[in-house]
Amino acid sequence: MDIEALALRSIWFAHLPAPLRAALLHAGRVARLDAGQRVFGEGDAETGVLLVLEGALRIEASVGAERDVLLNLAPAGAAFGQSRRGGGGPRLVTARAASAATVLLIPDAALQRIAEVHPALWRAVSELVYGQLDTIVHLAAQLLALGPRGRIAARLLTFAAGGEVALSQSDLAEMCGLSRKATNAHLAALERAGAIARGYGRIAIIDAGALRRLAA
Fold it and tell me: If residue 114 lies in a helix (H) or strand (E), which one and from where to where?
């Protein structure tokens, strides 16, 4: 497995200077995960940065004491995380493998050591955190401003890669705040309109323009 080649699928990582990328790769730990295996949990004191090399992770947050909800999916190429440097706190979300996955973990202590040689790292981490905040703000705006079908269209466009969305209908329903029955009904309507075509565990995007109009 070429870890560097897989890591370069991350836009955030690819834009870093080569010496900084090399330092992160050297300090990182590769972990191979089974479906459902937790990478870290909400409230964990240990922070740091994570790159998804293969597979996808479920990003979840707790609602009450015994329920977690799916906020987002982090596919291969995603980078996310945080640092406690400068007043940051514990992990805000739980990350677990949606299916078999491989990740690169760079703990906070390693980030601090690397930043002593490459101080530009803190700016890069700040940009990473800002990108996560931007994503959450737009997801919240979609939930508040769009109707059910518009929320579904927006999520399909977010996860479309090569004209196809590798996403279960149950995960799509949860991320849109809808029941699976209601989600299936809206997907059926989109399929009849020629915007999508459904398959097992996948949804093909036929008319992205129609989805964009719904998500506008």
Answer: helix 108-117
Q: How far is CA 170 from the centre of its chain?
A: 17
Q: What's the predicted TM-score (pTM) here?
A: 0.88
Number of H helices, E strands in the chain: 9, 11
Closest CA to 102 of 44, 52, 162, 45: 52
- Asked if 186 contacts 172 with a C-beta cutoff of 8 angstroms, the reply is no
Which ranges of the chain have pLDDT less than 70?
65
pLDDT digits (tens, 9 = 90+) for 161-177: 778 888 888 999 999 99
Nearest one of 48, 132, 31 to 90, comparing CA atoms: 48
- Would you call 159 helix, strand, or coil by DSSP? helix
Q: Give the Cα separation of 49 and 46 in Å (integer).
A: 10
Helix axes 120-145, 108-117, angle to 10 degrees: 130
Look-up of token digits 């995380």: 81
- Which residues, 6+ apart, have CB-to-CB distance to 76 below 8 Å? 6, 9, 52, 53, 54, 55, 56
Nearest to 168 by CA among 134, 200, 206, 195: 200
